Amino acid sequence: MNAAPAIAPSPPSIDALLGLARADMAAVDALIRRNMDSPVPVIPALADHLIAGSAKRLRPMLTIGAARLAGAQGDGCLKLAAAVEFIHTATLLHDDVVDSSELRRGRVAAHLIWGAPASVLVGDFLFARAFELMVGAGSMPALEILARASRVISEGEVLQLTRAHDIDLTEDVYIEIIGAKTAELFAAAAEAGAVSAGATPERCRALRRFGQDLGLAFQLVDDALDYSGDAATLGKNPGDDFREGKVTLPLLLAMSRTGPAQRDFWVRAVDRREQVDGDLDHARQLMKDTRALDDTLALAVRYAGTAKAALEGFGGPWKPALQELADFAVTRRA
Amino acid sequence: MNAAPAIAPSPPSIDALLGLARADMAAVDALIRRNMDSPVPVIPALADHLIAGSAKRLRPMLTIGAARLAGAQGDGCLKLAAAVEFIHTATLLHDDVVDSSELRRGRVAAHLIWGAPASVLVGDFLFARAFELMVGAGSMPALEILARASRVISEGEVLQLTRAHDIDLTEDVYIEIIGAKTAELFAAAAEAGAVSAGATPERCRALRRFGQDLGLAFQLVDDALDYSGDAATLGKNPGDDFREGKVTLPLLLAMSRTGPAQRDFWVRAVDRREQVDGDLDHARQLMKDTRALDDTLALAVRYAGTAKAALEGFGGPWKPALQELADFAVTRRA
Hints:
The structure is a homodimer. By secondary structure, chain A is an all-alpha fold. Chain A has a domain at about 15-220 and about 310-330: Farnesyl Diphosphate Synthase. Chain A has 16 helices and two strands. Chain A has helices spanning about 15-35, 40-50, 60-70, 75-100, 110-115, 115-135, 140-165, 170-195, 200-230, 230-235, 240-245, 250-260, 265-270, 280-290, 290-310, 320-330, and strands at about 105, 105-110. In chain A, strands 1-2 form a two-stranded antiparallel ribbon. Chain A is globular, with a radius of gyration of 20 Å. The relative contact order of chain A is 0.12.
């Protein structure tokens, strides 16, 4: 017998997860549409601009996936999933105001169209609506998880704001920042889904851990893509973090590894943000020389691995689909 | 027998209410202090700047008053009261960013010290903390009332933002705006207190009505004071609304009553905000000529009256104390 011809394995994708979650996500989408409505016209217009963007709806899908993996039969997780997307969208609206970002999800940032005041207030609307949805879901433990997550996210954002340009930021503090501002919502999204399914505390903790480590992997890849991706695929301008002087892991690794010879460059470009043409390319070169991007991605792969391991005790079709999501998070190009 | 000498009645005050609520409000204050803490240093600093200002704590006192009037014996209302103050403080922080206000509660507005980004994010922190406190209080109905109120407030703010400079704004739309952005939190504060006390639906509705009409009276007096008050007493600059071209009831009454002769003045000063020295004085004179300020205060007095009437079915010491709060709202000078 001849050996089977070698077939290149297809890259990880979220297709399996999308297939399993199709009906649930259609229901979540309908809930999102219905609940972003308001008699005040600018609210649905602004919310729609962001929500109809190229959103992957990863976080609500995590709530659905965790609930179904944990055996949820009913619709209790749908409102929680919509609430999770509203919390996420509210933080994006406020983030873009805080960072003066120009692009979001492939579109002009909302505050550049409707103004920063409307973005702040519509963010507040979506945040409040999220809590109305959670009340509708009727689970006080899920409410507690998502209220706490909302608070931790804001703490992470403030911490990042106050430490953003610190060229001596340590890897530990950086992981603390992204743990709060990104991974906490992934963790809470999964945990709330598990709780709504009536899962055991042990399984709730496992799903929280899955979300947490998936979120860390996801953010680290985002940080790397900001130096290695291109605008058309990303839906935002690559190099934004560098131009804003925002210290992320690739940058802090490069800064700490290049030594005194480059210190003046980092102080000028990152701390004082006095940048000239070629600075971004120079930073990219230093990241290559110091393996800063490679090591950022390697750390992301490690977190994806611990995320997948957290699901060991589960079975059924949702398990491999969610584990593939972790692989997708670290191999995606956008 | 001689008639008793005529004694001038002392002006309405909140002293009776403060006396009754003293122990509860001390406990609420301790909850506020404890819950505005965070390992991220700028959060308690910024929150303290606003919360330690000359705040009257009217809204949390309304929660306490409604709960005690409705017969609450336990401490269930304390966390709700602290949550109400956090929601209020969060909206103030975002409002000041939205309006670019310079003074708040007699102090420099927080965004001028820590920047607009920190104000937006600390507002988010306080809002999330409010929901954590509500979860701690453990009443899903109270959570529903305050989540809905938070959403209605944001809708009122957006409506005001989009209609703020409309010189043809009608009284109806104006009452809708302040009903949402101000009176809704007064209404929800009182209703949540009543609900936490296990009051009957009828009594919950009565206390909601009390809060609603008190809030309308309160806001109308605020609007009048912006034209008649002085900076030292107010803790903010009088004339701010006019300078920002913000249409409030005194202004819209004056605009609608002065006819075509003044139309160019209103278009320039309010719609286009091209103001010169003397414009504020001219507007004040037109308000006097058209009785716009008098009629604004008269409407406030009517709402204070319906607020007091809503408490008819109650008894005990909290009833006259809360009714005097309604009288205080329309006679205060700051």
